[in-house]
Amino acid sequence: MRLQSHWDETYAGDSASFREHGCAGEVWFVTEVMSVVASWTRNLCMGISQGCIPNLSDCKSESGEQVEKDLARWRVLDVGTGNSLLLQELAKQGFSDLTGIDYSEGAISLAQNLADHDRYTSINFLVDDILETKLERQFQLVMDKGTLDAIRSHPDGPIKWIMYWDSISRLVITTCKSAKDELVQEVDDFNQRRLGSSQDPPKDYPPFEFLELFSI
Fold first, then answer.
1. Residue 135 CA from chain centroid, whole number
2. pLDDT given for residue 150 in this prediction
3. Which pTM was predicted?
4. Cα(2)–Cα(164) distance, rounded to whole angstroms?
């Protein structure tokens, strides 16, 4: 796992490149994949709003106005947002309550500059570490496009893993290191740890459920 100093240096370089050449920096999983992830996330949220999860194919098509209202209710958090281009893709899909966090001040500075440049002025940005978050607001959806992959390779991986799952709610993970079975096992392990010796999950913390996997 790369240290925070590495990311500060990386995003400082990306910020300089943006100022001089208009380059946004690295795009995780390439632009086409990011667009597919955003579109799939939109369909997932619409399915949840309509109550037709896990059978997304059962969802009814809604008017543009209704879709806009449904998506506007979703509070979305992007952890390890980096240059925030994923949030811009989500904004294109109709999401409007968007927040990006990163523990690198350089990343947040670049993300804010890019959002301002591309006129995504409603996206909120905060310097924050998801493992020691100071966020008080709750979010209905958390986006992860590599943060969990990085946490797994941390020297204190098992501890960081617990801290990670404790801090999130409904989650969309984009990963290049995990197979479905591994993610399902992580969800099961977390549920068992939270449940402990009790057979009834706490009402305020319903168990995680693996809904769907799509591959690109």
1. 15
2. 78
3. 0.78
4. 17
